[in-house]
Design goal:
Elements (H helix, E strand, L loop, with lengths): L5 E7 L4 H9 L6 E7 L10 E7 L2 H4 L1 H9 L4 H18 L3 E7 L21 H16 L5 E4 L11 H10 L5 H18 L6 E4 L10 H4 L11 H17 L4 E7 L2 H10 L12 E5 L3 H12 L6 E4 L3 H10 L15 H7 L10 H4 L1 H16 L3 H8 L1 E7 L5 H10 L3 E2 L7 H8 L3 E11 L2 E14 L2 E9 L8 H15 L4 E5 L7 H9 L3 E4 L2 E5 L10 E5 L6
Parallel strand pairs: 1-2, 1-3, 3-4, 4-5, 6-7, 6-9, 7-8, 10-18, 14-15
Antiparallel strand pairs: 10-12, 11-14, 12-13, 13-14, 15-17, 16-17
Length: 554
C-alpha cells in the first residue's frame, strides 16, 4: 500500500513548476505532492505543509547586490544586511513546515563578463555570492531544522541553447536535468531528517574491495594501492568507504571466501585502507549471501531497509535483489576506476546533523561484538552483573539536544509513539505545561555507547503520561529500559502524580516496544495502554548504576 504523499511547497523567484513536477513524479521515497508558488507572494500570509523548498537568486533577495550587478558599486554591508532579512523571513516560515530546505545562491551569468575580477575582494561577483552564502549558512544555524542545499552540485558550467530559450520564454533558468538532481537531493535530505537514510554498506571482497581472488593468489598478489591505476582506484574506493564510516555509516562484509585468509589480508596487506576494526560485522564463508545479509541484519539489530549491498558479481546482486527486496542493491560498474563515482551517486547516506555518537558508531558496534561473545558464553544474569553498566541521566539541554532530537527522529524499534520533532518543536512542547525530558547515556567496562535513550513525561492533575520513550537498538535487553522507567516514575512521584500512563502507538517497526511493556511490570489497562500505580516505587534494576546530574531530582 502506498503511503500518503508529503505536501511540499516550492517557493522560488522563477518558474519552478518543473521542480515541483520532478518531486511529485519521482518514485523514490518519500512520496511527495508538490506545488510551486512565487517568492514574491510571500508576506504576512505564509504557506504551510510538510516540506518547503526555497530557491532564490541573490539579486532577488538583496537590492544592494542587484545594484552592484548594474553599476559595480555595491555596499557589502548592505548585502549582508539583506541576507539577514532573508534569514528572518525563513525563521518565520520554518514553524509552518516539518522540513525547510533552502537552496544556496549561484553567481548570476553576468559575473562571467569579467572573469579576471570574479574573485576580487569586495568587487568580484563570485566572491560576494560566496560571502552571502556563508552568511546564509551561519544564520540558518540559528533556525533549528533548516537545511542549506548546495545548488552548485546540480548545475553544469555551460548554458545550453535550450536553457536560454527556457529562461527567455518561461523564466525557467535550468534544464530539466538540474531539477531532477535537485529533487533527488531534496528527497535525500528529507529521508535523512526522518531517519530513513541507509545505515549499513555490506561489501563483497574479491574484485570489490580489492582486485583479485585472495583465496587463490594470497594477499601479496592483490591489486590494491601502489602505482597501478586499478590498484589506486581500489584504494580510493576504500578511502571513500572510510569517510562514510567516520560519519556513522556501518561497514560489513558478506563474502564467499576462507575467513582466516580474508581477515589476514585485511589486517596485513600494507595498502589496505580499511582494517578489521572498521567493520561492524562480517560473514565470510561459503553460505548464500542473502542468508548472510539476513544474519548481519539480526546481529546489528537493524532492518533490511537500512542496508546497501555492493558486489561486483551481477549474479550475486540479482540473487540478493530478488530474495531481499528491502535491501538496496545498486548496479555496479565493471571498471574499478568508476567505483568511487558509483558510491557517490547512490545518494542514500545523507545526514542533516553529525554528532559524536555518529562518529563513534563503528567503534561501538565493535565493542558490541565482544559483549555478544561474552554473553553467549554465560547466562544473561551473570553477563549483566559483569558488565558494570552505568547510566548517566541528564535533563535535556542545549549540549545534548542535537543527539537527543536525532535519536527521537531516527529510532523506530524502541519508540513509544514515534513522534518526529525538530529541536525548536521539542523545546516548544517542553515549554507548555508540567513537562520534563531526560537523556540517558550508557557505558560499561567495554566502552561508551553514548547517548542512547530519551524519555519525556507530561503531568495532568494526578496522571503522569509518558510521552516519549526511545532507546537505541544497540543497547536493548540490558534492563536500561527499566532504569528509564524508574527515573521518570520517581520524578512523577515527587510531583505528586498518582499514576503513570504509557500509551503505545503501533507502527510497522516498533513491536519491540510492546514486547517490553508487556514484560515490564506495568499493568495493561486497555489495548496499547499500560499503567503504574505511583503509590509504589518502580524499582531500579540491581545490576546497573544510575548516575543523575546535580539537581535532577528537583
Amino acid at each position: 500500500m502506498r503511503s500518503t504523499p508529503l505536501r511540499a511547497v516550492v517557493i522560488a523567484d522563477f518558474t519552478a513548476a518543473n521542480l515541483a513536477a520532478c518531486l511529485t513524479h519521482d518514485e523514490a521515497t518519500p512520496l511527495v505532492d508538490a506545488v510551486a508558488i512565487s517568492y514574491a507572494s510571500l508576506g504576512a500570509e505564509l504557506p504551510s505543509g510538510d516540506v518547503a523548498v526555497v530557491w532564490t537568486r541573490p539579486e532577488t533577495v538583496s537590492a544592494a547586490f542587484a545594484s552592484h550587478l548594474r553599476s559595480g558599486d555595491g555596499d557589502t554591508t548592505a548585502m549582508l544586511r539583506d541576507v539577514d532579512g532573508f534569514i528572518e523571513l525563513l525563521s518565520r516560515l520554518r514553524p509552518r513546515f516539518a522540513h525547510l530546505l533552502v537552496v544556496s545562491w549561484l553567481p548570476p551569468r553576468l559575473s562571467e563578463l569579467w572573469p579576471s575580477l570574479a574573485m576580487q575582494h569586495d568587487i568580484g561577483i563570485s566572491t560576494l555570492v560566496m560571502r552571502m552564502n556563508l552568511r546564509l549558512a551561519e544564520g540558518l544555524m540559528a533556525v533549528p531544522g533548516a537545511v542549506l542545499l548546495d545548488a552548485a552540485r546540480w548545475r553544469s558550467v555551460d548554458r545550453t541553447a535550450e536553457e536560454a530559450k527556457l529562461w527567455y520564454a518561461a523564466k525557467v533558468p535550468f534544464h530539466s536535468d538540474v531539477f531532477r538532481r535537485a529533487a533527488q537531493q531534496v528527497k535525500g535530505s528529507v529521508r535523512a531528517a526522518r531517519g530513513d537514510s541507509r545505515k549499513v554498506i555490506v561489501l563483497d571482497l574479491d574484485d570489490t574491495l580489492w582486485g583479485g581472488l585472495v583465496g587463490e593468489t594470497g594477499p601479496a598478489a592483490l591489486r590494491l594501492g601502489g602505482h597501478d591505476a586499478t590498484g589506486e582506484a581500489f584504494a580510493d574506493f576504500q578511502r571513500a568507504l572510510l569517510a562514510l564510516k567516520e560519519r556513522g555509516v556501518l561497514l560489513a562484509i558478506a563474502s564467499k571466501n576462507d575467513e582466516r585468509v580474508a581477515l589476514d589480508a585485511i589486517e596485513t596487506h600494507p595498502e589496505m585502507v580499511l582494517r578489521r576494526s572498521d567493520f561492524a560485522a562480517w560473514r565470510i564463508d561459503w553460505t548464500d549471501k542473502a542468508a548472510n545479509i539476513l544474519a548481519l541484519a539480526r546481529e546489528l539489530n537493524l532492518g533490511l531497509q537500512s542496508m546497501v549491498f555492493i558486489d561486483d558479481s551481477a549474479i550475486e546482486r540479482a540473487r540478493v535483489r530478488e530474495a531481499l527486496p528491502d535491501v538496496l542493491v545498486p548496479d555496479w560498474p565493471s571498471s574499478p576506476l568508476l567505483y568511487v563515482d558509483a558510491l557517490v551517486s547512490l545518494g542514500c547516506f545523507d545526514a542533516v546533523t553529525l554528532t559524536g555518537e555518529d562518529r563513534a558508531r563503528a567503534t561501538q558496534y565493535a565493542d558490541e561484538r565482544v559483549r555478544t561473545a561474552e554473553r553467549e558464553a554465560m547466562g544473561v544474569d551473570d553477563w549483566l552483573r559483569r558488565l558494570d553498566l552505568q547510566i548517566d541521566v541528564e535533563e535535556l539541554h542545549d549540549r545534548n539536544a542535537p543527539r537527543a532530537v536525532q535519536l527521537l527522529n531516527k529510532t523506530n524499534q524502541m519508540n513509544l509513539r514515534t513522534r518526529r520533532l525538530d529541536h525548536a518543536q521539542f523545546n516548544a512542547w517542553l515549554a507548555g505545561g508540567r513537562r520534563k525530558a531526560w537523556t540517558f547515556r550508557v557505558r560499561d567496562r567495554f566502552g561508551d555507547a553514548g547517548l542512547t535513550g530519551l524519555a519525556s513525561i507530561e503531568i495532568d492533575d494526578a496522571t503522569a503520561r509518558l510521552t516519549d520513550f526511545v532507546l537505541s537498538c544497540r543497547v536493548f535487553g540490558r534492563r536500561i529500559e527499566l532504569a528509564m522507567l524508574h527515573t521518570v516514575s520517581e520524578w512523577a512521584r515527587r510531583q505528586g502524580a498518582r499514576e503513570l500512563v504509557a500509551d503505545y502507538e503501533p507502527t510497522a517497526k516498533n513491536a519491540p516496544t510492546l514486547t517490553f511493556l508487556e514484560s515490564s511490570g506495568l499493568r495493561q489497562t486497555a489495548p496499547g495502554q499500560f499503567t503504574w500505580n505511583l503509590d509504589d516505587a518502580f524499582a531500579a534494576p540491581a545490576d546497573l548504576v544510575i548516575n543523575e546530574e546535580a539537581g535532577l531530582r528537583a
